[in-house]
Amino acid sequence: MTALPLRVPRLILRSAGYEMRKRIQFRTGFFVREVLFGTVEPLIMLFVYGALYASAGGGDVVLGGWTFDEILRYVAGLLVVRKLIFHNRGIELSTEIFEGRVTKYLVMPLRYFTLLQGRFLQYTLLQVVIAGLVWAAGYGLVGDRWLVPVSPTAACQALVLVLMGSYCCFLLYFVINALAFWLDVVWSLLVMSWFLVNFTGGGAVPVSQMPEGLQRIFCALFPYWTITAPIELVMGRLETADFQRGVVVLALWLLALECLRRLVWQRGLARYVGAGM
Amino acid sequence: MSTGEPGADEVVLAARRVGKVFKTFERAPGVLGVLRNFVARKEIEVAALADIDLVIRRGETVGLIGANGAGKTTLVKILTGIVPASSGEARLLGRDSFQLTDEEKRRLALVMGQKSQLWWDLPPIDSFQLLREIYSIPEECFRERVAAFTRMLDVEDRLKIQLRQLSLGQRMKMEIIGAFLHDPEVVFLDEPTIGLDLVSRETIRGFLVKLAEERGVTFVLTSHDLEDIEETCRRIVVLDSGRVAFDGDLDGLSRRVSGQRAVEVHVDPGAQLDEARLAEVLRQHGGEVGSRAADAVTILVPAEGIRGLMPALFDALPVRDLSVERQPLEHLVREIYSSSERSGAALPRSDEVEST
Ligand SMILES: Nc1ncnc2c1ncn2[C@@H]1O[C@H](COP(=O)(O)OP(=O)(O)OP(=O)(O)O)[C@@H](O)[C@H]1O
Ligand SMILES: [Mg+2]
Q1: 3-class secondary structure, A30
Q2: Which of A51, B44, B260, B285 could be stapled to B327 by a disulfide with Cβ–Cβ 3.0 to 4.6 Å?
Q3: What is the pTM of this model?
Q4: Residue A60 is part of which domain span?
């Protein structure tokens, strides 16, 4: 019997549908988790930056290549981009490993990862809608002071980078979650990794405002191309050549993380004990 | 395909000297214990299985029994490729169990009494749809099977209710339906009847027997309920402390079992037993004391001795209550083990193989 060639995409779709239903089941929880999540940090940033620029003389002061107006629009961009990036609460793989919930998939003719890809797809579709709404709401409130893309092309390029980066995050979280085959402190590693991704990506300070040395290092990592770079593309501070470079860097990271994922999963399964059965 | 001609003699499953050792760390209790563990953890090895040899052919129905912790679940996990064996080799459908491809997995099913195969937040019918997708079951077959199986198990009206809202028995029936939807050749059932009432158990047994007969499904069933095994399996494998203590035809075994009865006698609390008289009565009717509790004695006696034993017991003891049962599983397992030809001692206890 040969498997239908479309079986895997269909499975991903079906699993995405299932996840979607699960996710929008509880309205209040949905609102708090998906809409409000990630709004606190940008607010703090605004407050800190406001004080910083004011003490530096206010007005048109330029700090590290950024004016206060640009920072405002950067923060607006962060609000939207954060919505799009896959978050580790999207995979509960480590709990599933601890509690032996992975067992059932191991006897089925499919890769467990396929189902998680369905989850990623569902997450992304929904988040694109939410991010669009957040952007529109902001624009409605403050008009042109909000982040307005310099061109539709720039917006599309930014979206491509963010989604590729989001998939990198997904793979990274998968790998860390899979460490549950060895460790029982995966949760704190996940929190740390989220912090690292956020910081090296420019979630607290735009990478291009950081010291030269750090910039050079961070530009080689995927978070920069997921957070700072797309926002700067939309603002017009980066151009198509930068976008192309970003695609290459992200593609290399995707490849590396995918290899790592396979390795960790294979090795991990050999240590699986299928608890609770 | 990796398997040979499908035929009655085809070996579906073969285990050769399979052993399994779990490695864990000892966790001492209390704050001090945690600190001590942090500085120097002690690794313990738990030997769960040793030298398991087993060959199962197409169409066989095998009951796997043994006391708690005997290694039944571990053996099922190894045979289905969920965990790797530590030593030896397990093959399912012609391939190393731990390396099964989708091709073999499509022909396999597993039902776990303790864990759900279906999706917890979905009504069974949606789970079945997902399974249809996963196993590429043709729409026509799918509808037929769902209809037939739900009718056989009497859960037709429960298909659209969320799984978590079903009763244990209804859920278990759905699990079994889910496992048989893709028409598997080999099915493993680990305690599928745990916690179910008599009627449900009987329905499930009937279902299994029917599928084994009609479709020639090979299955391996574990249960602590000897009746489950007797009514569904033709072959029985007894595990004791990780070793095969008995492997053979059920008929022979049930003759031995059905020849024995366990009489549980409850006496008035605090009553003084006339031990001499009890011993005398037992000697006359060929019985022996199986076990004792504070106010109860269990007597094992051949079935033919029971008629004479009963009145004598009432005479000899201050009987408050009394029940007669077939020989309970534990006695049987113990007896089989002590009389098994295997001379090797049971596996060493976990605390005897410590290593640091
Ligand atoms: N992950 C694990 N780590 C350490 N020891 C384990 C692990 N899983 C099982 N064991 C041990 O292996 C032995 C066999 O366990 P198993 O679950 O196979 O027993 P079982 O025959 O299924 O028992 P039951 O009838 O209670 O279900 C037990 O002593 C158990 O403590
Ligand atoms: Mg068990």
Answers
A1: helix
A2: B260
A3: 0.81
A4: 4-269
